[in-house]
Every structure is written in C-alpha cells, then in structure tokens.
Amino acid sequence: MFFQQLINGLMVGSTYSLIAMGYTLVLGVLQMLNIAHGDVFMFGAFLGLTFALLGIPLYWAILLAMIGAGIISILVERFCFRPLRKAHFLGPLLSTIAFGILLQNVATQIWGSEPSRYPQTTEIAQFQLGPILISSIHLIILATSLFLMVAIDQLVKRTRMGRAMRATSENQTNASLLGVDIFWVFTFTFFASGALAGVAGVLTALVYLQITPFIGIRQGLIGMVAMVIGGLGNLRGAMIGGILIGVMEVMNDAYLTAGYRDMIVFGLFFLFLIFKPEGLFGATNRES
Amino acid sequence: MSVYLEGVLALMGVNILMALSVYAMLTTDQLSLGNAGFMAIGAYTSAYLTVKSGVPLLPAVLVGALASGLMGLLISIPVLRLKGIYLVMATLGFGEIVRTFFMNFEPTGGAYGFRGPSGATLPLIYGWVLAAIFFFWLLTRSRLGRSLDAVRDDPEVASTVGLHVTLLKIGSFGLGAFIAGVAGALYAHYMFYIESNNFNFLVSAMAILFVILGGMETFWGAVVGAIIFSILPEVLRFMKDWRLSLYGAVLVSMMIFRPSGILTRQIIRDLGEWFEGIFRTARAKDA
C-alpha cells in the first residue's frame, strides 16, 4: 500500500517538477515570475488532446504539444516581458496574469468549458511487481519526466546555450557586451520553459483523463510552490521540490483528509517563504 | 434602475474598495497578491454573524472588517521583511490558504458555499466607498499621509528622520486588510450566496491591476482604474464569448503602452491648472 502510494506520488510529482523547472528557467534568467506558465501548461494539455484525437501516436502528440506550448510561451515573452524590460518587476507579472486570462478564454472558445475526455491512445499494460501495480502510463510519465530533467540539467550545465543563459542570468549588460545575443537567450528560455509545461500538460492529462481550460490555475500555483521549496532559481531544487509535493499530496489523500491537501501545500509554501526563503537546496536568486 | 445596471454598479463599488485596499498597502511599498483572502475573511465573518447569529448588517460588516484587519496586522509582521517577488508569493500563498480553509470549513458551508446573507444596497455600498475616498483624501493632506509617502519613497531616509517605519508598514497593511474586509462583507450581503472560489487569486490580481492601470501615484488612480476596468467587460459584451480574450488583450496592451497608469500626479496637476484657467477666464469676463 505504502509503496503503491509512493509510486503514484512520484508520478504526480514528476509532472509538478516539469512545471517547476519551467518556472525556474524563466526566473533564473530574468528574475521574474511568469504567472501565465500554468495556462501554457493547460494549452499543452489541450494541444496533446487535439493531436491524440487526430490519431497521432502518443509520443508524436507529446512532441507536437511541446512545440506548440513552447511557441505560446515565446508569445508570452514577446508581449509581457520584452516591451516591459525597463519596467518595475510588477509590470510583467501582472501582464502575464492578463495573458493567462486571455489563454483561458481562447481555450474555452476552442475546446469548451466542459471537461474534455482524453482518448485512450495506448494500450494500457499493467505489471505486478510484488505488492505494487505499475501501469504503462506510470512508466511513460516517469521515463519522459526523468529524460527531460536530465536533458534540461545538462543543457544548462554543458551547452553553449546553457552558458549564455547563465551569463545572462548573472548580468544582462555584461553578457551582451561579451557577445551573447540576450534576446535569443530570452526566446530560447521561454521556448524551453513552455515546452516543459506542455509535456507536463499532456502527462497530467494522461493521469486524470479529463481536462478543462481552468486546470492551469492550480497546477501553475503548485509548480510555483515546488520551485520555492526547492530553492528559487535552482533547477535541481525544482525537480526535487516537485516530487516532494507530489508524494506529500498522495500520502495526504491516502492517510489524511483529502480536502485539506491544498491548505497544507500552501501553508508549507507560506512557511518556507518566511522562514526559509532560500528553499531546501539554496536559491540562486540574488534578492533572497 | 434595471437589475443589470444595479449589479454592475454594486460590483464596481466592491471593486473600488478592493483597489483602495491594495493602494493602502502600496502606500508603504508593500504589494499584496492575497487581498482576496482578506475579502473572504470579511465576507464569511459578517455573513455568519447576520445569518447564524442574527446580528444587524452594519455591525456585522464592521466586525467582519475588523477581523480581516486584525488578520492583516498579524500577517504583516512575518511578511514585513520580504521584498519583491518573495512578498508577492507569500501574500498569494496566504490568499490560497484562506480560500482552501473556507472550502473545508463546515460551519460556513464548506465546499457547498454559504447561502443567506442579504441586505446590502447600492446606497450602503457607495456610502462605504465615499467614506473610504474621504478617508484617503484626508490622509493625503495629513502628516500621516506624508509619513507614508516618505516610507514608500525611501524607508531608510524615513527612519533617519525619526519615522517608525515598521509601525507604519504594519499599519498600512492592516488598513488595507480592513478595507478588503469591508469589500468582502458588502459583496456577500449583495450576492446572497458566497463560495470559496469567489475569492481566488484572480480577484487579488484584478485588484492590483485596477491600481496599476489606474495609476499608483494617487488614490484617485485606484478609484478610476476600478471604475474603468469594471465597466470595460460590460462594454465588451458585443464581443460575446470572446470578450474575456479582448479584456486580457486590452490589459496586456495597457501595460505596454501606458505602464505608469491612466492617472498620474502630472495629469491631476494639469487638470487642476486647466480648471483654474477656465475659472480665471470666466472671472476676467465678469470683470
């Protein structure tokens, strides 16, 4: 029973990790919050749904949803961040909230506000591992998330683009003096952030099997909580933070009252911000 | 007056109060993305008093607002030292805690919502709005108002000239929470029914948007912002189902093209001079 819950928690948590990593990429490079991130996630889920309904195989649907969500995220950068580069940090933050309203409304117009059911695209196989039941959906979610976590981590640590991102994060003026095209870095960062949210959207939809245009609100906030608990701007922290919250949630639902789940999550979020704003693994954000 | 128009005006009044509650906190440079939480405390407390304990409306609104204000004072102490996005996230977290609390709190209906509060009329709502405006009008003319300005512009200088910065910050946060509590209490007794989702983080975000887009330099900006952006969704009704998209797009473009808001101090000064000019020519004609 306990191990079964642990596996379920890992599965839910890894989707939170992907959302939190997307937040972290943007926050790390720009020191700004992108509240529309949750709605990019929601759009990713619906794009995945649309491709799946067209009969496209799951892995291609995930890839296409990633690209689509990445492009929407680039739009967020173009409209909410780039024109407001010199503004108070509040400007882009509020602008992304407004952009989120827009995305929710567009999604409602395209797909309707009633829950949309996700089609069953793959044959679900189940494996019995001692007392634990693992389905192929579990494995797809865990494998995809793990692969992306390693990929993004290596991308930021080892590639030329990753180095440019880190330089931009440290000091935009210096980076651009040293020949980094910071606008290209912003575009790339938002694309990567949106793509992660898009994958998380499709994977979450595979777990819950139905989606509405409003799922991004809660998932986006939970992703933010995961980021704070892991440490602001810390990619590996965001991964672990997401998994911790996922496991905690599932354990709460299994052993305590499900209704109090979000109260506990946000209570923890609040306590962390006040007593341990650098998170569990240290923040790279200079404001802390 | 048609029911529709009355509804729009009532919500506009509530929005003005919410905008002023954000403005009150901003007077000492504290930004809260959790004022819907304070609104919820005011709403649920007052509604419980009128429905379950038979307390008359006016004292119930006052007690609701005081409960919310007290919570504001309590919250502001730990939150005080946070800055920038940390403060934004902490207040957002607070708002979500309150919302999920009321979603589970059985005495006020839990997830089913709370039915029954009634009695808030337009004159009552606008009585509170006018009282709040009058209060801020007095405040900007007072020594206290100048002190708050000083804290906002530079807390270090303010403290070297002998102002108690911490106390002023806590006070302005409590004041903002109190006003949000009033807004919530009036909202509950106008709507007859409240549920925890009426107080989600979008409500807090809109309250900030009213202030920023109206102009955060004076309290008139908050009032004007709340009025314009409460009417706008109604004006956009011809867009039918797409109106929220257009609303979002208008907000995003406002941020790009007029980041300092509609009403700045400069504009108020210019308007004043313009009126004076009209006065002077009128008097010159009389003479």
Quick overview:
The complex is a heterodimer of chains A (288) and B (287). Chain A is mostly helical and 288 residues long. Chain A is built from 11 helices and 4 strands, in the order ααααβββααααβααα.
H and E order of chain A: HHHHEEEHHHHEHHH
What is the correct CATH architecture of chain B? Answer: Orthogonal Bundle
State the helical fraction of chain A: over 70%
Number of domains of chain B: 1
How many E strands of chain B?
2
- Please give the most extensive interface between any two protein chains, plus how many residues each contributes: A-B, 49 and 41 residues
Question: What is the residue-averaged pLDDT of chain B?
Answer: 90
Radius of gyration of chain B: 20 Å
Structural class of chain A: mainly alpha
Please, what is the average pLDDT of chain A?
89
Q: What's the number of extended β-strand segments of chain A?
A: 4
Structure description:
The complex is a heterodimer of chains A (288) and B (287). With 288 residues, chain A is mainly α. Chain A is 73% helix and 4% strand. Chain A is built from 11 helices and 4 strands, in the order ααααβββααααβααα. In chain A, the strands form 2 sheets. In chain A, strands 1-4 form a two-stranded antiparallel ribbon. Chain A has a two-stranded antiparallel sheet with strand order 2-3. In chain A, α3 (58-81) crosses α8 (182-208) and α5 (136-158) runs antiparallel to α8. The longest helix of chain A is centred in the N-terminal third of the chain and has 29 residues, at 2-30. Chain A starts with a helix and ends in a 13-residue tail after the last helix. Helix content of chain B is 76%, strand content 1%. A two-stranded antiparallel sheet of chain B has the order 1-2. The longest helix of chain B is centred in the middle third of the chain and has 27 residues, at 165-191. Chain B is globular and about 70 Å long. The relative contact order of chain B is 0.18. At the A-B interface, α4, α9 and α11 of A face α4, α9 and α11 of B.
